Amino acid sequence: MKFAIQVNEGPYQHQATDSAYQFAKAALEAGHEIMRVFFYHDGVNNGTNLTTPPQDDRNIVKRWSELAKTHSLDLVVCVAAAQRRGIVDEGEMQRNGKDAQNIADGFRISGLGQLIEAGVQSDRLVVFGD
Amino acid sequence: MSENIKKFMYLNRRAPYGTIYAWESLEVVLIGAAFDQDVSLAFLDDGVYQLVKGQDTSGVDMKNFSPTYQALGDYDVTKLYVEKESLEERGLTIDDLMPLTYEDEDDDWAEKDSIRLVSRAELADIMDDQDILFSF
User: Fold this and answer.
1) Is residue B133 helix, strand or coil?
2) Staple B77 to which of B72, B88, B110, B123, CB 3.0 to 4.6 Å?
3) Cβ–Cβ of A113/B31 closer than 8 Å?
4) What's the CATH number where B74 sits?
5) Domain residues for B108?
6) Would you put residue B112 in left (φ > 0), alpha (ψ -120 to 50) or beta?
7) Distance of alpha carbon A2 from alpha carbon A15, whole angstroms
8) CA-CA distance, A84 to B64, in Å (whole number)?
9) Could you give the 3-state DSSP secondary structure of residue B48?
10) Interface touch B31/A116, C-beta < 8 Å
């Protein structure tokens, strides 16, 4: 089965992001395809490389990056939601005159069309949120 | 893309202000309208407050985005289901909501109501019929 995943809540604050990760991992291990993970609302905070959790806790951002690397996952952060919340890549940094970027490895910033397209092209869109 | 039209429903369950869900949901609807899918919106729970007329946000320094709902008809988003029980539980009737209309191109551009009042049971059936449910 071809899944798309939407994550609507921020890391640590809410379990939605943990559940989404565990679902994605389990689906991949069972041989399914994850065609895209789309981060929206505060979910965009999953994509900042400035995260520094305590050492005895899970590193949610790094966990996504590693999963993306292992399985060539497409991790997409919504540009409009990211701009509001300060998630910035090289292009956004230049376009908006910022002096830093913080997008984590394996993530890319793109538009909401990527979410709709994921709905159109997948067999199932699974939403994790409140 | 016409060979692959899916039924997309956006569930709006939260009050318009207080959290950003309602506004960012509307942003998805507006972008999604360009994809030529079969789109509908559902308003239930506190989400029915999103359509209440006469919204005034001047006291809380937030953008009043309620006029955007009136533009949905121009985006061919013409099916707005409002759950009757959610209205009643909050002491509201359909007369408390903004009049939202669209022009029906298949009926000589007649102006028609976009809001369709449905019962909880009817909405459950409509939801069951969808391919994609976005919950905001």
Assistant:
1) strand
2) B72
3) yes
4) 3.40.1260.10
5) 2-135
6) beta
7) 23
8) 17
9) helix
10) yes
- Strand partners of residue B83: B118
H or E segment at A126?
A: strand A124-128
Structure tokens at A51: 């995260």
- Tokens matching residue A11: 């890391």
Write the ipTM.
0.91
Question: A43-54 burial, b if ≥16 CB within 10 A, otherwise e?
Answer: bbbbbbeebeee
Nearest residue on chain B to A121, alpha-carbon basis:
B4
CA B49 to chain centroid: 11
pLDDT in tens, A67-82: 999 999 999 999 999 9
Pick among A39, A78, A116 to test the B interface (most B CBs inside 10 A): A116
A111 residue type, one letter: G
B1 pLDDT higher than 80? no
- DSSP bridge pairs for B112: B102
The percentage of chain B sitting over the pLDDT mark of 70, rounded to a whole number, equals 98
What's the whole-model pTM score?
Answer: 0.94
Could you report the per-residue pLDDT of B61-120, keeping only the tens digit for each? 999 999 999 999 999 999 999 999 999 999 999 999 999 999 999 999 999 999 999 999
Instruction: Write down how long chain A is.
Output: 130
Domains of chain A: 2-128 (3.40.1260.10)
| Six token digits for residue A121 | 């092209």
Looking at the 3D structure of chain B, how many domains does it have? 1
Contact yes or no for A81 and B24 at CB 8 A: yes
- Answer yes or no: are the C-beta atoms of A12 and A121 closer than 8 Å: no
What mean pLDDT value characterizes chain B? 95
